[in-house]
Fold these 2 entries.
Entry 1:
Amino acid sequence: MKSVIPVFKGKNPILPGAEFIRNPFEFTIQHAGEMGDFYRVPFIFRKLFVTTSPEVISYVLQKNQKNYVKSIAYRHLKLALGNGLVTSEGDFWRRQRRLAQPAFYKKQLEDLFAKMTEVADRYVENLTKKTTGSETLDISKEMMSLTADIVLKTLFSSDNPGDISEMYRIMMDAQDYIVFRTTRPHLIPLGYLSGRHYRFKKDMIWFNSYIHQLIDERRKQKDPPNDLLTMLLQTTDADTGETMNDQQLRDEAVTLFAAGHETSSNALAWTLYLLSQNPEVLKKLRLEVEAVIGERTPTFEDLRKLTYTMQVIQEGMRLYPPAFALGRQPVEDDEISGQKIPAGSVVFISIGALHRDPKYWERPAEFYPEHFDPEQEKQRPRLAYMPFGAGPRMCIGNHFALMEMQLLLAMLVRQFDFELKKDHPIEAEPLITLKPKYGILMQVKPRIRAALSQA
Ligand code: HEM
């Protein structure tokens, strides 16, 4: 195929794509300078185009989005998520999105926030007990179970620890299974011998019957709790009067659970790591938190006053975007900036590289929350920052996630000191989301009350 855009050659002329596959997050950041913002990485069976150009991104995700479906990687997710918002396409997706959207309106978020604070208070209390002296914890695991508790509480109003931990275990195992299928398709046949496929199926049977039971019970309840499941159950299509059937409810509930905790968890874990390396930022953050909420639990109204806290979170997701890339495939042949994009090829939007492009960021590699001062924000194209994606498929839970992270970050930095364990390696591993490969081991100490106002 004739290429009018640069083509990556790499060290291995036979398999230049291998470098990309090894770590697409690192690859696209490393090669951004030499390759520019729109280039091709040659593969034997598939055409892959990498982009960080806001114009190309806008074309694919907005202007001509009807011609672009989610790439093949999303199809593996269907094994666990079914046909929910993340994995569905076309008219079915459009209808589901319309039905689910009201669950994320401001009034509803305010009610969900109250549930979040319950979980956050309980977590801080338990962590205070657990860390009377100083405890070394894997912060990425801690944040994962905390955000899973929050999503389960806001979805199902569930507090049953036994079921929650089983659901949680199954989702984690399912994710490993999907990553295995996506990244090592040649090993899929071995999964029959090792029992991996069987275990996944068995887990899914338990999981599905548990969720269907929750849905059944909820349908019978006269005075149901005000949570996401009730919202999804009661929502009605304004045009047709249709509601979701049990299978759709199952798929959307599992999708919200899966999409709604690992992303926020990674964003928080990376931000706590970045704060441990940037004491000046931490100091400024604590000053704001103490001025706005003092020693009480934050309220929904406090959130808009926690402006620096928000900047810190945005900056954390700039350097380590949990959704580090978006993949799209054209349904029909297309052409972008004179470059032919054949049907079935992959357009890989590297959010990781876009967020570090020196064209848009004063200090691309530094943790500098001032990047999100309103004045600085005005200087950038809108699509220079897109941790939640863009266009009609943009994250439905973005406000949910931001308020959750503001709440948790404020409560955590007020209450605890987090110090990275000496010599602990930090490396970003791009799986379904961008994870710390070796976790983030930190010493966690409760802060002394008297020190709160001085630190
Ligand atoms: C820091 C946290 C989060 C990040 C960075 C994030 C990121 C994203 C991104 C980039 C997309 C678009 C994917 C694409 O276009 O291919 C997306 C979609 C989605 N997210 Fe999030 N997300 C976060 C939190 C949440 C939460 C808390 C929920 C729900 C409670 C959620 C539910 C969804 C759903 C359902 C979709 C699919 C939307 C659609 O296609 O209609 N996300 N997310």
Entry 2:
Amino acid sequence: MRLNALITINYFMNKILVTGSNGQLGETFRYISEKFPKYNFHFLGLPEFDLTDKNELKTYFKKTPINYIINTAAHTKVDQAEEDPEVVKKSNINILKNLCELSYEYAFKLIHISSDYVFDGTATKPYKTNDTVNPIGVYAKSKAAGEKTILNAKVDAWIVRTSWLFSPFGHNFVKSIFQLIKNKKEINVVADQIGAPTYSIDLARFILNAISQKPNFKGSEVYHFTNNGSTTWFDFACAIKNEINADCIIKPITTRDYPTIAERPKYSVLSCEKTKKEFNLNINSWELALKDCLKILNH
Ligand SMILES: NC(=O)c1ccc[n+]([C@@H]2O[C@H](COP(=O)([O-])OP(=O)(O)OC[C@H]3O[C@@H](n4cnc5c(N)ncnc54)[C@H](OP(=O)(O)O)[C@@H]3O)[C@@H](O)[C@H]2O)c1
């Protein structure tokens, strides 16, 4: 292909639709979108737009040509999911069936966000992208089934698994602990689950830079993206406390002391080596990312 033809293709590959736009990661994309002026961003989310409605999606794509969909939409209430598997299936699997089917007709590439919960948490070293998945709850099983839907459809797609998302947006651990330690004298936090916190701003930036690096990617790939390092919820909470100089006492407890409806993986650190290598990436530590997040929350 001639160089100017390639440049023309890349120039017009600039329309990005972010779904789940009113959630934590969706809002993050909105927040950083102005730093990526070369892209023309569109946002869709509940309650205005239900992605499970295939006809509505078709009507949308007829009017709005899109080159990439970044699907952050999901049912993410892990405990509630145990009581309503049908609703979870709609958002975490059926949406993907719709998007995969429509991607042939409307020629877009899909970037889908998945989760560390596809693993059972019995590992003792970071999970690689090709390690066998073994999800343990309704939410986790639906995320694994969503991945399978994409891989079986053989569309152009990246599945980006992440873990322990935090940011100034939506609902997340950092925002909850930030409020609790400002308002309580003492709190208990689970100290026997290990994972890698991920700043949603770093994740969103990675995805947009990755699209710039490989705009014409073909086939499907699984990537992992988390901040560097790992920790427990207890140590994560202590790091938040230290950053804001709070007096609240944080006590470590076990998962058994704090039973939840859905079981969580004990260890869910994801290896990001493949991602770092393929995209020539340096990823911030979660501690540095936390400082940035708290700076924004403190304003
Ligand atoms: N948060 C984490 O720690 C974490 C960890 C690993 C992976 N992930 C994955 O990362 C992605 C983003 O997570 P997040 O923290 O941004 O979740 P979130 O805040 O719950 O955002 C998800 C958004 O999707 C929307 N949604 C659900 N069903 C929809 C539908 N049928 N049509 C349109 N929108 C729909 C939700 O709307 P409602 O709120 O109205 O339902 C919500 O606004 C998800 O795929 C999640 O599985 C998250």
